[in-house]
């Protein structure tokens, strides 16, 4: 991922005529270019999802992105991979804004969050590009610059053609600044979308029949150092729920080595899904290693423990697929890569933290009651699909703008 344009820190005082250089910056691609800006990691992730959606219908469109280095950490190369360039805005300087926009010449600006960076938004407005401001909350109007400089706030917001706010309070705050009501509408917050992994319908139908009314839980992407805790939790839960089936999905195929011997030592009956073993009623653990089967397991299991989260060096996996497909989510305390999403799920009652084999087993016994897991799953589905309507709307808005540009080019 490119590091941006070598911007100075906010406290630096570069020469006014200094133009930042970045020899690693690629050339502007041919065709339409969209500029997305994020103020928070969750907004950045949502814009990545939006870019993917737009790319499916307009493969000729390229995206450059920027992020506010004062309010969020640098995205990982994987997270920023949807963009041809990722620009760290570390200082609000006119020379940097002009250099960025002169090079990329974007056709549209989609700015997420109410933390405006004045030279960048003004430079975009001067160039006459379409400008959309999304995910503006009431909290964005509590910063000192809005209280002390209302004229700046008004002129900053008025540069945008469309302003999408997340609450009635935010809409009222925008109205008090004198922004035309026609520009403003209330929407859901901007959230990462989810495209749940598919599964083979025949496998789903067969397993549903084979399992009948058996209680089932899943340990997804289980890491080598989590296997013992998961097995211990399952053994504890089996004492009170004798027909309970664990789908043990291993993150690494090599984890299968020695696992059969360990399960046999615990007198646990198991089957290997990858080898085509039948899932018969005496089976207590079903072993799987293929990532492509996760869509099937999330649909089968009403309870899912999401791995890479128990050990201190864990970073977690995204819980949105599990939540969208109806699983109540259990997770360990180490989910830093997806902390915002887990926090939202936990606050909604859709997820629970576990810290050990004992707490995992206890949570299982609580959630085996179908009504408990179903209540969590419903809350999780609502969180996973939050923002879908706004994403659809933004895709349509971008499409309309690009159609207008194409029509204008054809008549010139």
TrEMBL record:
<dbReference type="InterPro" id="IPR039901">
    <property type="entry name" value="Kdotransferase"/>
</dbReference>
<comment type="similarity">
    <text>Belongs to the glycosyltransferase group 1 family.</text>
</comment>
<feature type="compositionally biased region" description="Basic and acidic residues">
    <location>
        <begin position="14"/>
        <end position="25"/>
    </location>
</feature>
<dbReference type="Pfam" id="PF04413">
    <property type="entry name" value="Glycos_transf_N"/>
</dbReference>
<dbReference type="InterPro" id="IPR007507">
    <property type="entry name" value="Glycos_transf_N"/>
</dbReference>
<keyword id="KW-0808">Transferase</keyword>
<dbReference type="GO" id="GO:0016740">
    <property type="term" value="F:transferase activity"/>
</dbReference>
<comment type="function">
    <text>Involved in lipopolysaccharide (LPS) biosynthesis. Catalyzes the transfer of 3-deoxy-D-manno-octulosonate (Kdo) residue(s) from CMP-Kdo to lipid IV(A), the tetraacyldisaccharide-1,4'-bisphosphate precursor of lipid A.</text>
</comment>
<keyword id="KW-1003">Cell membrane</keyword>
<feature type="region of interest" description="Disordered">
    <location>
        <begin position="1"/>
        <end position="26"/>
    </location>
</feature>
<keyword id="KW-0448">Lipopolysaccharide biosynthesis</keyword>
<feature type="domain" description="3-deoxy-D-manno-octulosonic-acid transferase N-terminal">
    <location>
        <begin position="28"/>
        <end position="190"/>
    </location>
</feature>
<keyword id="KW-0472">Membrane</keyword>
<comment type="pathway">
    <text>Bacterial outer membrane biogenesis; LPS core biosynthesis.</text>
</comment>
<protein>
    <recommendedName>
        <fullName>3-deoxy-D-manno-octulosonic acid transferase</fullName>
        <ecNumber>2.4.99.12</ecNumber>
    </recommendedName>
</protein>
<dbReference type="InterPro" id="IPR038107">
    <property type="entry name" value="Glycos_transf_N_sf"/>
</dbReference>
């Amino acid at each position: 991922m490119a590091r941006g344009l070598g911007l100075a820190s906010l406290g630096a005082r570069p020469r006014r005529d200094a133009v930042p250089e970045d020899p690693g910056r690629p050339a502007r691609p041919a065709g339409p270019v969209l500029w997305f800006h994020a103020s928070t990691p969750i907004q950045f992730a949502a814009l990545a999802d939006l870019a993917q959606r737009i790319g499916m219908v307009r493969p000729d469109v390229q995206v450059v992105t920027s992020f506010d280095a004062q309010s969020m950490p640098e995205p990982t190369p994987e997270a920023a991979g949807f963009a041809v360039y990722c620009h760290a805005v570390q200082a609000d300087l006119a020379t940097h804004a002009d250099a960025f926009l002169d090079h990329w010449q974007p056709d549209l600006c989609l700015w997420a969050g109410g933390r405006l960076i004045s030279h960048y938004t003004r430079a975009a407005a001067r160039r006459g590009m379409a400008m959309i401001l999304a995910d503006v909350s009431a909290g964005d109007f509590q910063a000192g610059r809005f209280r002390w400089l209302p004229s700046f706030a008004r002129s900053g917001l008025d540069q945008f053609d469309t302003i999408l706010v997340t609450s009635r309070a935010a809409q009222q705050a925008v109205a008090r600044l004198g922004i035309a009501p026609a520009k403003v509408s209330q929407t859901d917050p901007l959230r990462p979308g989810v495209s749940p992994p598919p599964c083979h319908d025949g496998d789903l139908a067969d397993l549903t029949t084979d399992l009948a009314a058996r209680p089932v839980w899943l340990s997804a992407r289980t890491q080598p150092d989590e296997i013992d805790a998961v097995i211990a939790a399952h053994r504890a839960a089996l004492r009170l729920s004798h027909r309970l089936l664990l789908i043990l999905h291993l993150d690494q195929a090599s984890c299968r080595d020695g696992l059969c011997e360990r399960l046999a030592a615990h007198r646990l009956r198991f089957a290997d899904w990858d080898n085509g073993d039948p899932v018969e009623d005496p089976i207590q653990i079903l072993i799987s290693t293929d990532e492509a089967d996760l869509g099937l397991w999330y649909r089968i299991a009403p309870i899912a423990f999401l791995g890479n989260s128990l050990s201190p060096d864990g970073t977690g996996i995204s819980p949105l697929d599990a939540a969208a497909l109806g699983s109540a989510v259990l997770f360990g305390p180490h989910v830093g890569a997806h902390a915002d999403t887990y926090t939202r799920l936990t606050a909604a009652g859709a997820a629970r933290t576990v810290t050990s084999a004992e707490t995992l087993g206890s949570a299982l016994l609580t959630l085996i009651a179908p009504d408990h897991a179903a209540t969590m799953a419903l809350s999780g589905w609502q969180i996973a699909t939050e923002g879908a309507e706004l994403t659809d709307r933004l895709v349509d808005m971008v499409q309309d703008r690009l159609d207008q540009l194409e029509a204008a080019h054809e008549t010139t």
